[in-house]
Amino acid sequence: MSNLEHYKMFINGEWSDSENNSTFESINPSTGKSWAVIPEASENDVNLAVTSAYNAFNEGEWSKITPTQRGKYLRKLGELLADKSEELGKIESIDTGKLLKETRWQAKYIAEYFHYYAGLADKIEGATLPIDKPDMYAFNVREPLGVVAAIVPWNSQLFLVAVKIGPALAAGNTVVLKASEHASAAMLEFGKVIQEAGFPPGVVNIISGHGDPCGKTLTTHPLVHRISFTGGPNTARHVIRNSAENFAEVSLELGGKSPFIVFDDADLESAVNGSIAGIFGASGQSCVAGSRVYLHEKIADKFLDKMVSLASSINIGDPLLEETQMGPLATQGQMKLIEGEISKAKNEGAKILHGGKKPTNLDGGWFYEPTIVDCKDQKMKIVDTELFGPVLSVLRFKTEEEVIKLANDTKYGLAAGVFTKNGARSLRVTKALRAGIVWVNTYRVVSPIAPFGGYKDSGYGRESGMQAIHDYTRIKTVWINTSDEPMSNPFQMR
């Protein structure tokens, strides 16, 4: 293990190994080989991180500074991230298999998220209430919650960190970040940027480890006031159960099986490119992946001819190379899941239009070809199973009413895409779709200004935008008696 990178956790402004020196290895999905050693947090490690955050919130420097000063810390963090995007992006690419082009861009773009929330830090306002009581003055203020437990999956780690801690810190909270056990390095590297930005000790803590004991201890901790979780629905259920122990507020950003609807009047080139971006970008390892495409029967064959042609030309390989367009899957478990579901789909009568196997020209690593599956009907299991990989289910439709029904026939509701030149139709369909995000004639666009979140089994709560910063505060109502007269009868309601 001497040739492997050795990481430490960031707790109370200092770097530390786990209490018992327990570790686990992180695997480079491009090679299938270990490349880094990650600390496995014990219960005591988690308690130290949470306690540090709690003390920073209640007694430390962070509890005394002004909102404007909080904003300056966030701005500094954004500036540093923009400067360090290359090195941070490379670490994330090695650890997850995502393209360096994407991780580098994300690491740089998330600076905008911190700048956005830096600007909002001193604009969290209360209100004077037009109260209906004589001699009473009433107003409310928004105050931070306390310690926030932010749990981030392996995909798009730096981006997801930004959308969580940006509003949390702007509102005045402190944070304990838990990195995914599948890819922790980028988050631990992020701690160096936090340190360089000069945040007081305990304001941001970063721990690593598995669900038990690390995740369980964090989400049940009595000093945690809010849990912001991004991940799978099964883990989310554990998080919700755990939150009953501390009555922490919970927000969930979970999975998706997003519909991508192409009407017969759509610009086919734009629609095909949008679908490629939606399902093969990031190797399909995106919660908003447009993994169900619904094609109007008039243009279905033409669309698929174009898509298969483009899919066959996608350059699969080393994510660190600029010419690579699609990297590996992040885990071996994903590979096995996809292989199993493709086999089931074929047995159910699906036709593989492209892909459906590992590339023959690549040795080692967890690579899988861009795969297009022509499905005979909506009832096939693959149509509503999140695979988190480059697998597209194809179905056809005749009418607007039909496709809306098909698109909404899912337990998920995170995102959707609509391609049409008809403005009235785009508005009708957007209104009818049960999804938290709808992209019209585009796909996979994000911004710090736009709220992000889903319906149904895709979770609840919103990240990004003004709504997010409100979610990290609670309202306090203040009553002031303006009368000089003593209070009257104590047994009479006022």
Structure description:
- The protein has 494 residues and is of the alpha/beta class.
- The protein has two domains: 263 residues, Aldehyde Dehydrogenase, Chain A, domain 1 (3-Layer(aba) Sandwich); 182 residues, Aldehyde Dehydrogenase, Chain A, domain 2 (3-Layer(aba) Sandwich).
- Helices cover 37% and strands 21% of the residues.
- The protein contains 14 helices and 21 strands.
- The strands form five sheets. The protein has a seven-stranded mixed β-sheet, with helices on both faces. Strands 10-9-8-11-12-20 form a six-stranded mixed β-sheet, sandwiched between helices.
- Helix 1 runs parallel beside helix 7, helix 2 crosses helix 6 and helix 9 packs across helix 10.
- The longest helix is centred in the first third of the chain and has 21 residues.
- The chain is globular.
- It starts with a strand and ends in a 13-residue tail after the last strand.
- The mean pLDDT is 96.
List keywords for this structure.
six-stranded mixed sheet; Aldehyde Dehydrogenase, Chain A, domain 1; 2 domains; 494 residues; alpha/beta; Aldehyde Dehydrogenase, Chain A, domain 2; 14 helices; seven-stranded mixed sheet; 37% helix; globular
CATH class of the largest domain: Alpha Beta
Task: Say what the CATH topology of the largest domain is.
Answer: Aldehyde Dehydrogenase, Chain A, domain 1
Morphology:
globular
At CATH's second level, what is the architecture of the largest domain?
A: 3-Layer(aba) Sandwich
Radius of gyration: 24 Å
